[in-house]
Amino acid sequence: MVSTDFELQSASESASAETANATVSDAAADSTFAEVDDRSRTVPAIEFRDVHLTFGERVILGGISFVVQKGETKIILGGSGTGKSTLIKIILGLLKPDSGRVLVDGEDITDYTEEQMMSVRHKIGMIFQEGALFDSLSVYDNVAYRLHEQNVDEAQVEEEVRRMLRFVNLEDAIEKMPIELSGGMRRRVGIARALVGAPSVILFDEPTAGLDPPTARTICELAIKLRDLEDVSSIFVTHEMNNLTYLTGEYAVVDDSGEVILEQEGEKLCLINTKIMMLRDGEIIFSGTDELLRKSDDRYIQTFIHGK
Amino acid sequence: MDKVELSISPFKCASINPSINTSNTRKQRERSGNNKYRLTSPAVSAHHAFSIHFARTYRMNTLLQVLLEIQETFLLATRALVRIIRRPAYFAEILTQIDRIGVGSLSIILLTGFFTGGVLTLQTVPTLKSFGTQSVTGQLIALSLVRELGPVLSALMVTARVGSAISAELGAMSVSQQIDAMRALGTDPIRKLVAPRLIALLISLPLLTVLADIIGIMGGWIVAVSLFQQDSSTFLNSVRNGITGDDVIGGVIKPIVFGFLICAISCRQGLTTEGGTVGVGLSTTRAVVLSAIMVIISDFFLAKALQVVLNVPT
Ligand SMILES: Nc1ncnc2c1ncn2[C@@H]1O[C@H](COP(=O)(O)OP(=O)(O)O)[C@@H](O)[C@H]1O
Ligand SMILES: [Mg+2]
Description:
The structure holds 2 protein chains of 2 kinds. Chain A is α/β, with parallel strands linked by helices. Chain A has 11 helices and 12 strands. Chain A has helices spanning 4-17, 23-35, 84-92, 114-121, 139-149, 154-167, 183-195, 213-229, 241-249, 290-295, 299-306, and strands at residues 46-55, 58-68, 73-77, 99-104, 107-108, 124-127, 201-205, 233-237, 250-254, 260-264, 274-280, 283-288. In chain A, helix 6 (154-167) packs across helix 7 (183-195). Chain A is globular. The model of chain A is unreliable at 1-24 (pLDDT under 50). By secondary structure, chain B is mostly helical. Chain B has 2 domains: 2-68; 90-308, no CATH class. Helices cover 78% and strands 0% of the residues of chain B. In chain B, helix 6 (137-175) packs parallel to helix 10 (245-271) and helix 8 (189-227) packs across helix 9. The longest helix of chain B is centred in the middle third of the chain and has 41 residues, at 91-131. Chains A and B meet through helix 4 and helix 5 of A and helix 2, helix 3 and helix 7 of B. Adenosine-5'-diphosphate sits between chains A (55, 60, 78, 80-86) and B (40, 46-48, 50).
């Protein structure tokens, strides 16, 4: 389905998309991917080609192009109302762009019907901005939703639900109704629900907004573990700089005793699987690594980073 | 306005309607180069009261908008039926809805029916008496109830109780992104939410209506016998002679149509809700008002159509 020259094309596009100031790290990224034997890994998990979207006369996305490689985390920064949630909804096919192409796993989903989208959505986990838990269902049924829809055997469902809730550290809340949960717990149930079925792409829409710092940290740790241990590609929308520090500065490894630990990026290792993209007025105003972001002399970016 | 223009649909977003996203309509839309006739999708919640913005930006022909709304409402319900018939599912959900919609409405329907039959007798017997025709009281009560009052009043009560609940529930789900979440998790909201409610209403409303008719006649009978000292068997005989099989058929066809209308309108209003909690209130009001008006308007045309179809002497 995906031809070789398409792969080449997308690789070159990714290089050009990440503008001149990011060429070094991109070359590094490309060389890394080139060494991986599996050719399918060079097909990007998500690709936008010149996507436009307007609501009425307001331009929300004015020609967005970017690539999220397999196993890569793309952090999307941007003020409120810059179209971050909209962009994520386009990936899921909940919204359709006015023009441009959207590819998921090399598959052009732009013109897919709702029915065709259903199979694509099975590969994608979405964490909504406000959790979007089903009020009428218990935590168990929320997390089990996807499996129940697929008529999976109940014993298997229960095992999977417990495993997921353990992953987000909420096994005690299994019997509760969403209304009884705090904001952070709701968000984590949302994450557990999105992770069921082991999707290869996960979309986080401001997963830490409005949460206390320790809970926000927990959620970032989850994202790091998914990235480094589960080989998940993700888009992580946020406007909190500490999330960015965590995601770009730490990585998860399994130590000798089998425990998962987080280590700081240091002299000897620099994370290349996390890139940053910044949106403003429907345009990408920055794309590259966190080091480049912090060094940027763009006034808007500096204001965004330092809050003044 | 031709058909093609109408189906350049009002949907900006990936609607649940597969036909709309075909490359064909996309192309037409791009070719015609306008964004004019687009509203948001039924299932995509927006952060804005988009329609207000929309109306301000594009002075869309009101008539066209009404036609589009009718088309989309109708399509939503037919799609729900087609999808559930093609691939049946959610039996548990259908049963839950029958319980909520049908069994739950029983008490108000019985009360309405009983007192309607009662008051009808109360008001008509004096007039019949003045003509000396009180022997036909039963027939008059039964005919009024079976042909008109039973179906219409039941539909109105169900609109108030069920239509409002459907649109409020779906509306709240829309604005809290639960509909989006459902789609993101690979479930079709039309099959999961609309179809079970539609089937439940199509089953429940005719049954409720028949019950309302029976209880209404009973109410009339009690009033006739107790307040007007009419002969019980005269009344009942008059009832039996008064209604024909055609009346009963018409009295069951009507609630089926009403159920379809109530469910289609309420689901459509719920799924297109935008603008937070205020939006839920607005769409619920709209669902109830529209359903009630549509029930009454369609009742007239149904009555006429049934007269023609069933060859009722006019
Ligand atoms: N369905 C819609 N109709 C009209 N405007 C919308 C719709 N959805 C979002 N918008 C507008 O698009 C802009 C981007 O929204 P969003 O993607 O939610 O921003 P954010 O970056 O904060 O997530 C906002 O100004 C919002 O008002
Ligand atoms: Mg957002």
